[in-house]
Design goal:
Layout lengths: L6 H17 L3 H4 L13 H13 L21 H13 L8 H14 L2 H12 L5 E4 L15 E4 L6 E7 L10 E7 L10 E7 L6 E6 L8 E15 L5 H10 L4 H25 L16 H23 L9 H24 L22 H8 L10 H12 L8
Parallel strand pairs: 1-4
Antiparallel strand pairs: 2-3, 3-7, 4-5, 5-7, 6-7
Helix pairs in contact: 1-4, 4-8, 5-6, 5-7, 8-9, 8-10, 9-10, 10-11, 10-12
Length: about 400
């Protein structure tokens, strides 16, 4: 297959690079490289302002299945979206805080929402003014999403749906203005039946509470969210059809974003290779506490394998860009990158050797945990979760086995 880009795409590349370099100035220049995986807490104020800057440039909503400019956004082809994403990542532009609304909720509203819902919510997303988070997982219903217990009941007095329950692992919940919530609206219903896809305003004092979850890396970009009679503003797709809408959203979750992610992976791999070279020392003699010399065949082979697998992931992502509706493509992509990134974290500390287990000399009692970690240590700790969040490896393999290969379902 030919994975090269055409002349139109290269013209867009030059335009995108020019716009980005011209706007990544002042406070946005200070936010370069901030807000990636494991560091969602960094530079939130500047990144939120940057979201509005992207909106003014028409760069939000490029992949929406709508006419260009319908909500102020410019429509780009799939390859055009890849070009923009590559330039964005190459210049280390600030990590997006609006990607959940742009890449998850907006396509879902386009597919399942009413015209009124699209007109109400898409403009705010396209302008970068309204941020979203996702209320799916619960303490007892993560990978088994059909087991959720959060409920939404009609208030007899005002007829409004009021949401009660707990969600967990909610990214960007502290920054979000809205949350799309999967809740049980039919009393006594079980599993996939009786669920609804609700849009809930986060600013409801006393009814919505967000509690950060501190991770072993020291950061807390994930949160618990508690709903206590919170009002649901909208139901998408009709009451009782939440499972269909929720599954439709998950099918939209991975695509061009996978290619963007891989550019960040490449930068991380480059840092690990650089650490290996530094550990080898002049002439390959080996640095103190490092990898032990350029002649280590195991580490060299692992580095080469990581590079080769990353190239294969890119080609697979490009090959499947247009495979919307393929139930297996998102699961295959998740299995590939989740395992790859986890192995990279392991390789990062292996290259460092025994020194990876130590903190700074002045890392004493009371020192904030996150301030005592270097890049390799944070990478190792954060990537422990890569094969779990977003659908565990076991769940992805079940999806491929049952929905793609037609194998018998796992006994329950």
């Amino acid at each position: 297959m030919d994975f090269s880009f055409g002349a139109e795409d290269e013209e867009l590349r030059a335009r995108a690079r020019s716009w980005l370099t011209g706007h990544l100035v002042g406070p946005y220049a200070d936010a370069l490289g901030l807000g990636g995986p494991g560091s969602e807490h960094e530079g939130v104020g500047a990144r939120r302002a940057w979201e509005r800057e992207l909106g003014r440039g028409g760069w939000i909503g490029q992949g929406w299945e709508l006419p260009s400019g319908a909500y102020g956004q410019q429509r780009l082809s799939l390859t055009g979206q890849v070009v923009w994403a590559e330039e964005y990542a190459a210049l280390r532009a600030p990590g997006r805080v609006g990607h959940i609304g742009e890449n998850l909720l907006a396509p879902t509203l386009i597919a399942y929402g009413s015209p009124e819902q699209r007109d109400r919510f898409l403009p705010g997303i396209a302008r970068g003014e309204e941020l979203w988070c996702q209320g799916y997982s619960e303490p007892d219903a993560g990978s088994d999403l059909a087991g959720i217990r959060t409920t939404a009941v009609r208030d007899a007095a005002d007829g409004l749906l009021r949401v009660t329950g707990q969600k967990i692992w909610t990214s960007l919940a502290r920054e979000a203005d809205w949350c799309f919530v999967l809740a049980r609206t039919e009393p006594g219903s079980r599993r996939h039946r009786g669920l609804s896809f609700l849009l809930v305003r986060m600013d409801q004092p006393g009814r919505v509470e967000v509690r950060p979850i501190r991770q072993m890396s020291g950061t807390s970009e994930f949160n618990e969210v508690f709903f206590d009679g919170a009002v649901a503003a909208e139901v998408v797709g009709g009451e009782g059809n939440g499972w269909t809408v929720a599954m439709g959203l998950l099918a939209l979750e991975r695509g061009v974003s996978t290619l963007v992610q891989q550019i960040g992976f490449a930068a991380e791999l480059e840092r690990v290779v650089g650490a290996y070279v530094a550990a080898c020392g002049p002439g390959g003699a080996g640095g103190p506490g490092g990898a032990g010399g350029s002649g280590d065949p195991v580490l060299r082979e692992r580095l080469v394998r990581q590079w080769a697998e990353l190239r294969a992931m890119r080609w697979n992502a490009l090959r499947t860009l247009g495979s919307a509706g393929d139930p297996g493509a998102p699961s295959v992509a998740k299995l590939l990158w989740g395992g790859w990134h986890r192995r990279l974290g392991e390789l990062a500390v292996a290259v460092r050797g025994a020194g990876a287990s130590a903190g700074p000399a002045d890392w004493g009692p009371g020192t904030p945990y996150e301030l005592g970690l270097d890049e390799e240590q944070r990478l190792f700790l954060f990537t422990r979760a890569d094969t779990i969040y977003g659908g565990s490896d076991e769940i992805q393999r079940n999806i491929i086995a049952e929905r793609v290969l037609g194998l018998p379902k796992e006994p329950r």
